[in-house]
Design brief:
The protein is mainly alpha-helical. The protein has one domain. Helices cover about 35% and strands about 10% of the residues. Helix 2 crosses helix 3.
Length: about 140
Amino acid sequence: MEVVSIPPKKFTEYLKSEGIIKEMSKPYSPQSNEVIERANRTIRERVRCMLDDARLQKKYWSFPVSLAVYLKNRTPTRSVVSKTSHEAWHGSGKKPLFKYLRGFVCLVFVQVPKEKRKKMDYRATSGIIVGYSISTK
C-alpha cells in the first residue's frame, strides 16, 4: 500500500468543497471533546468485559473492539432520532438484522475439506467465534 501525502491547504479545500466543517481541538486536552471521550471509554469497558468473560489474552483486543463498535452502530442513539447510526450513515431506511448474531467466543464447528482429511479423520474441528465477517452474514 502506498501512502500519499496531501498538503494541508489542499485537504482543507477538499473538506470545504464537500461541506465538511473542520474543527480542531487542543492536543492533550480530552475534556474539550467529552462526547467522543465518553464513547471511547464505553467501548474500552465493553472490550475489557468481553476479554475477561472469554478468558482471552489482551493481545486479542481487536476482535472485541470490532464487535463493540459493530453493535454500537446498530443500536438506537439519542443523537439520531428513530434510527440507528448504521441506518443514518447508509441511508437505506432498513433496520439492521440481528438474527445471525452469536455470542462473543461462541463454540463453532468448522468443516475440514475432503482434501485435507483421511478416511477416518474427523470431518469438523471445533473453534470459537471471536468476530464477524464484514463480507457475509
